[in-house]
Amino acid sequence: MEYKSKTGRIDTVSKVIAASPHTIYQAFINPDALIKWLPPEGMWGEVDQLEPHAGGKYRLILYYEGEQTSEGKTSEYSDVSEGTFIELIPDMKVVMAGAFDSENPDFEGVMIMTWYFEEILEGTKITVIAENVPPGISKEDHSDGLSSSLENLEYFVETR
Predict the structure, then answer these.
(1) What sequence ranges are listed for the domain Activator of Hsp90 ATPase homologue 1/2-like C-terminal (predicted)?
(2) What are the extents of the domains in the chain?
């Protein structure tokens, strides 16, 4: 998959979670764990493919629950994202290049998602940087969705 870094819009969110970077990283590379926390509020999902190594592929399907204010990117009720893992540094960083399976040009393009895990006194500071965000995703909705996923991750790792 061809990708370019640092192009288009960039969205970022951060959160401190009371867990080790190792625990966070494991929740990211384990498909059963990933799908429990990644879908933002109002969605659920499934992992169709997850090969967590540089050059490995992934395919995630997220479904909207109940009433929604907008149509899904792939179908009326779903978003399908697929791509490649660019870099994985255990307990420190995950970089993914992915695109939505969509016929709508507003959702076209390869988005680069970089997840940083920084060990701090309180646990781990997670920073997500999304580069080349498609124009069909509003900045507010994207920030809310990323923040929701991080809240889900916090709940997942702190209640295991």
Answers:
(1) 19-156
(2) 9-41+86-158
For residue range 117-134, list pLDDT tens digits in order: 999 999 999 999 999 999
Q: What architecture does CATH give domain 9-41+86-158?
A: 2-Layer Sandwich (3.30)
Distance CA 69, CA 97 (A): 27
Q: What is the 3-state secondary structure (H, E, C) of the chain?
A: CCCCCCCCEEEEEEEEECCCHHHHHHHHHCHHHHHHHCCCCCEEEEEEEECCCCCCEEEEEEEECCCCCCCCCCECCEEEEEEEEEEEECCCEEEEEEEECCCCHHHCCCEEEEEEEEEECCEEEEEEEEEEECCCCCHHHHHHHHHHHHHHHHHHHHCC
Non-local (6+) Cβ contacts of 138 within 8 A are none
| C-alpha–C-alpha distance, residues 72 and 114, integer Å | 23
**Looking at residue 3, what is its pLDDT?**
42
d(CA 33, CA 118): 20
Choose between 5 and 47: higher pLDDT. Answer: 47
Tokens of 150: 């991080």
pTM, entire model: 0.89
